[in-house]
Design brief:
alpha/beta, 7-stranded parallel β-sheet, 8 helices, 249 residues, Rossmann fold, 45% helix, globular
Length: 249
């Protein structure tokens, strides 16, 4: 009996824009079927167009556990050969010092950046284990290991993603599931457009980056793809900065 061959499948959150979109395109070009998840349905359509409308799109609010649980069941039905999960979805709130941080703002950034990553892992890890060897890559940030003034909510959420990644890596190392985390510096995406539109801020951030420039989403996607490849099969539980030297200062 000839064993059926299956096209590899990858699940990518935040796929409607920026790093998530670039990552979806990278995996598609490598021969994967891609499940694109985002809260913005219109942007998801644009991503699907970039991968020849051959993936599937799931409109999902990852901050809501019940919604993620329901969506995960749908993913398992439609994408039951999945061996890759990329948690790229996230937000960057308005900078504020701790005492001025609004409770709603704090809850929102933690719910999306940290809890959303946890929910996706919680409900999709059983599927990934069935298809092991498998890989998860979580997106943290350089602010997941350092901090800047007025970034308490974002930095706390991204520090949490690093800890979650390391603990999960230990949970599943013996079961063929690798879990890693990356820490981008400033990436030129829609999320950073407003910040970089201020010339003084842009010059300041460039000055804090030894390579003297910001990264492109495609550069981040390359690292993500590598971490899910056979060439990275001995890498798990890591935090890898991709920041132009920012955290080396």
């Amino acid at each position: 009996m000839v064993k059926k061959s299956y096209k590899p499948q990858a699940i990518i959150t935040g796929a409607g824009s920026g790093i998530g979109r670039a990552t979806a395109k990278r995996f598609y070009e490598a021969g994967y079927s891609v499940c694109c998840i985002d809260i913005n349905q219109e942007e998801l359509k644009k991503t699907l167009h970039k991968i020849d409308n051959k993936g599937i799109a799931i409109n999902l609010d990852i901050s809501k556990a019940k919604e993620v649980k329901k969506g995960s069941k749908k993913i398992e039905r439609l994408f039951n050969n999945s061996s890759v999960l990329i948690n790229s979805a996230g937000i960057s709130p308005e900078p504020q010092p701790v005492h001025l941080y609004k409770n709603k703002q704090w809850k929102r950034v933690i719910d999306i950046n940290l809890s959303g990553t946890f929910y996706l892992m919680k409900y999709l890890i059983p599927l990934l284990l069935k298809n092991a060897p498998a890989s998860i890559v979580n997106l943290s940030s350089v602010l997941g290991v350092v901090a800047n003034p007025t970034t308490s909510g974002y930095s706390a959420s991204k520090h949490g993603v690093v800890g979650l990644t390391k603990a999960a890596a230990l949970d599943y190392a013996s079961q063929g599931l690798r879990v890693n985390c990356i820490g981008p510096g400033v990436v030129e995406t829609n999320m950073t457009k407003n910040v970089l539109s201020d010339k003084e801020t842009k010059v300041l951030l460039q000055g804090q980056t030894p390579l003297g420039r910001f990264s492109q989403p495609e550069e981040i996607a390359e690292l993500i793809y590598f971490l899910c490849s056979k060439e990275a099969q001995f890498i798990t539980g890591t935090f890898i900065p991709i920041d132009g030297g920012y955290t080396a200062i």
